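Quick one: Extracellular solute-binding protein from Streptacidiphilus monticola, structure tokens please.
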Amino acid sequence: MKRKIAAAAALATVLTAAACSSSSSGSGTKSQALLSTDGKGKTVTVWLMQDAQKGWPDVVNAAVKQFKDETGAEVKIEWQNWPNYGTKLDTALLSGNAPDALELGNTQTGKYIASGAFVDLTSVKSKFDNSAQWLDSLAASGESADHSKTYAIPYYAGVRTVLYRKDLFAAAGVTSTPKTLDEFKTDLDKVKAKNANVPNFSALYLPGKNWYAALSFGAAYMSDPSKVIASSDGSKWTGTLTDPGFVKGIQTWDDFQKNYSVGGTTVDESDQDARMAKGNIAAIVANGWELSSVIDPKVGDPKLADKLGTFALPGATADSPAPAFLGGSDLAVPTHAANPGLGAEFLRIFTNTAQQTALAKFAIPNNKTLLSAYKAASPANEAAANAAGGKTWFIPNSPFWSQTSDEVALQTALSDIATGKDVTSELTTAQTTILTDINAG
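--- reply ---
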């Protein structure tokens, strides 16, 4: 933890110095957020992940063409990979060799926002198409801790829904998808009873360390699910893991995993798709890509292709599905980019209505207005679109959130609860660890 604090402090120091030294030339300052179309003779460098190169290259090419036509600038796309990307980005920012615009995972943004790594785009936010309808948690990940400033622009999202065996549910007499957790429990009782003779059968597989699924149960009973894990007043984080509503939700999750899940109390969800393909799991809480994995000939069973369906994890009431964790990517302009105004303009064009409509054929777009286009791309997208457009939750946007400390603290607490330990006690222990970390700065 001390090493992480020191690294964040070093990054902040270097970025502040870089911003001050460049302010006289009119580029690279944190406060500068003007869009620019003056690109004649210039080349803008943009870092994008290979997801786009493999999945939607035409969207990127269309944005590049429009940007070149409107600004006169050339665009150099440098394709990146997720492994070790944070280290590469740190090095670029610290050395002053940052691109003019870049993509990063929305769980990464907090560190860079707090250290002054990105240009404040608040004043030009309204110039971005559909910015008033950006997906809630994706937009929040690009904001300051108090949500008063915008430093990163939502790009695209991913969300977890229930992936289930339609044939197994139908054989058990379940003919419609549940609207509440109580209805879901009734359905699972039927599926469990119908498959009582199947060895190691899970009507709903809920591995103990799958904190993404478990916290959605907790969020379902909170008055403000956007404050799952912790809430900030802008200067200090306060824990919400012991919120009575959240505790009730985790108790409900514990009831579900004890009654319907077999053999997964001390493991995570990393192999649940392969497990489901074996035929003894009727449902999992899964990312969108896991449907393809379940039927992949290399790791799954292609014969299940027509037998799989999805629906949003139900909530406590019929009019409020359980809030889902909203992952995805953001886009930002580094504070000491050579061409910050042009970088921001490229992002504006790259996320405009035309490009996001085209992107919706492949991934969840960054705003609620275009979720209809995502639904239209495939009937299988409806559940994910509904979940993304509803109430969602995200990790605390603190630079000191730690995957190796805070996520592990959640996984440990949930695994212990799944194996019989007290819910409130375990959540209290996890909350203490997390607050110590995220308030460290």
